[in-house]
């Protein structure tokens, strides 16, 4: 089977999602499938095929489109800067995907809502499309904005045009795909809320290469323990949605009760300096090690006693599975998909999300009871080994690909493929634009031959109703 795994985002900058893509592609290739990876290269500003020496210059195409998306002619694009930025970025991605080619694959597996909808929009030939919903785009955007505006409430944010835009993009994406692949019941419910029938939703939890994990875990730990101190650990991005600020707040409370611990926060992100300042303000700067990104998390976990995942939203974090495989029963926030990974009190602990006091209390309990941690850790390890293998994930994903091919009927009545019933006045085909502004540009003939004849920029489908 010829398979394209594709994301709108930077291909190797996706944290756990990159782990998912890389492990899946390697496993499928071992089984004899031809797997190609498409995504953006942040440094060179290109859309490219990994290891194929094929790329598309996003910057040049962006510069060609930008002057012709005027706010006076297309005011709906300029309601908020975020809307314009995402829409222009999507049009550039669509042109790049079409130029790189989509028709040679037996199945295309999109890794986010933007790429799922974008790819359906530029298809001329029928290709089964599977879309993984690794998270809830609109909810994630709320937490990104709340990180910038700490007092922002969900109700206030939902009144903004950017919320409606992301909700519309989610809706377009799930109806563009033949089948939706989700890792948890929670995200399946989010997809179902957009009117997708259960037969088009396939639940397949993430898996880990157990042999590779065990080999890494045997390597020396990059962490140094402090004598007489138990080690609490978090590994992941340092962004607001990950809730690391809640963990640090909890550690400030914990410090008032006991001092027999240190915390390692492994990862990088935009909040690094802010989190360091928070730790200093709470007087726990000497009790927290900000290590930066650690390449070998399995080895690092051999030094840990407690693992915490304090996210405000997370579907099925790889780091939680890695902790379980290390024999550590994790503490997770009781929201979104994380409670599905833990049986409270048996294979881990669930605490209320965004509640530093509850998290501090759970950490204090675990620090007091070595036998409890060991007993739950063994149960967590057995559960992860039985339920989170890469072999199981690959098998289930292939099953989803075959189901998508069987279900494939293009376009479905419910699918917003092509253009909506109306066109935006002044909308254009990019090949026509290039023919006018850069006569002889070779990209003009490529886009004319590979994009649908009715493809237009701006896209009328993002308009509500």
Describe what this molecule looks like in 3D.
The relative contact order is 0.13. Strand 7, helix 8 (185-192) and strand 8 form a beta-alpha-beta unit. The mean pLDDT is 95. The radius of gyration is 23 Å and the shape is globular. The chain has helices at 16-30, 58-65, 81-100, 113-122, 137-148, 154-157, 161-176, 185-192, 210-217, 244-255, 272-281, 297-301, 318-325, 356-368, 370-387, 390-407, 430-437, 442-450, and strands at 2-10, 34-41, 46-49, 54-57, 107-110, 129-132, 179-182, 201-203, 230-235, 261-266, 288-292, 306-309, 331-333, 349-351. It is α/β, with parallel strands linked by helices. Helix 2 packs across helix 3. Strands 4-3-2-1-5-6-7-8 form an 8-stranded mixed β-sheet, sandwiched between helices. Strands 11-10-9-12-13-14 form a 6-stranded parallel β-sheet, with helices on both faces. It has 2 domains: 2-207 and 391-462, 3-Layer(aba) Sandwich (Rossmann fold); 211-388, Rossmann fold (3-Layer(aba) Sandwich), CATH 3.40.50.2000. The chain starts with a strand and ends in a 15-residue tail after the last helix.
Set out the fold topology.
Layout: E1 2-10, H1 16-30, E2 34-41, E3 46-49, E4 54-57, H2 58-65, H3 81-100, E5 107-110, H4 113-122, E6 129-132, H5 137-148, H6 154-157, H7 161-176, E7 179-182, H8 185-192, E8 201-203, H9 210-217, E9 230-235, H10 244-255, E10 261-266, H11 272-281, E11 288-292, H12 297-301, E12 306-309, H13 318-325, E13 331-333, E14 349-351, H14 356-368, H15 370-387, H16 390-407, H17 430-437, H18 442-450
Parallel strand pairs: 1-2, 1-5, 5-6, 6-7, 7-8, 9-10, 9-12, 10-11, 12-13, 13-14
Antiparallel strand pairs: 2-3, 3-4
Helix pairs in contact: 1-16, 2-3, 3-4, 4-7, 5-7, 10-14, 13-15, 17-18
């Amino acid at each position: 089977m010829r398979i394209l795994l594709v994301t709108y985002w930077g291909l190797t900058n996706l944290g756990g999602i990159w782990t998912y893509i890389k492990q899946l592609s390697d496993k499928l290739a071992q089984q004899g499938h031809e797997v190609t990876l498409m995504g953006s290269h942040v440094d060179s500003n290109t859309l490219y095929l990994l290891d194929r020496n094929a790329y598309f210059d996003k910057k040049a195409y962006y510069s060609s489109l930008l002057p012709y998306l005027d706010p006076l002619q297309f005011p709906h694009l300029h309601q908020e800067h975020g809307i314009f930025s995402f829409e222009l970025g999507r049009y550039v991605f669509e042109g790049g995907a079409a130029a790189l080619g989509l028709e040679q694959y037996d199945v295309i597996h999109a890794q986010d809502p933007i790429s799922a909808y974008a790819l359906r929009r530029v298809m001329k030939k029928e290709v089964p499309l599977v879309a993984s919903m690794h998270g809830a785009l609109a909810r994630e955007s709320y937490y990104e904005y709340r990180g910038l505006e700490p007092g922002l409430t969900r109700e206030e944010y939902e009144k903004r045009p950017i919320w409606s835009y992301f909700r519309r993009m989610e809706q377009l994406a799930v109806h563009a795909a033949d089948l939706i692949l989700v890792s948890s019941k929670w995200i399946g419910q989010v997809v179902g809320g957009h009117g997708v029938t259960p037969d088009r939703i396939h639940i397949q939890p993430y898996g880990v290469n157990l042999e590779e994990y065990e080999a890494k875990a045997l390597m020396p730990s990059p962490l140094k323990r402090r004598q007489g101190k138990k080690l609490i650990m978090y590994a992941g991005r340092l962004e607001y949605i990950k809730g690391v600020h809640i963990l640090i707040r909890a550690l400030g409370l914990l410090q008032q009760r006991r001092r027999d611990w240190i915390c390692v926060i492994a990862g990088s992100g935009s909040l690094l300096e802010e989190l360091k300042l928070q730790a200093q303000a709470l007087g726990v700067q000497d009790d927290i090690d900000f290590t930066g990104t650690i390449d070998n998390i399995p080895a690092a976990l051999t030094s840990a006693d407690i693992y915490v995942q304090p996210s405000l939203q997370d579907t099925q974090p790889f780091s939680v599975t890695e902790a379980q495989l290390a024999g550590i029963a994790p503490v997770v926030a009781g929201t979104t998909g994380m409670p599905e990974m833990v049986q409270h009190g048996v294979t881990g602990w669930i605490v209320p999300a965004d509640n530093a006091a509850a998290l501090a209390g759970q950490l204090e309990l675990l620090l007091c009871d070595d036998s409890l941690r060991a007993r739950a850790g063994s149960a967590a390890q057995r559960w992860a080994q039985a339920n989170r293998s890469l072999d199981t994930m690959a098998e289930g994903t292939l099953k989803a690909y075959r189901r998508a091919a069987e279900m494939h009927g293009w376009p479905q009545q419910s699918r917003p493929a092509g253009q909506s019933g109306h066109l935006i006045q002044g909308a254009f085909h990019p090949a026509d634009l290039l023919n006018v502004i850069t006569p002889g540009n070779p990209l003009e003939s490529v886009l004319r031959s590979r994009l649908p004849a009715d493809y237009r920029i701006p896209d009328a489908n993002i308009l509500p109703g």
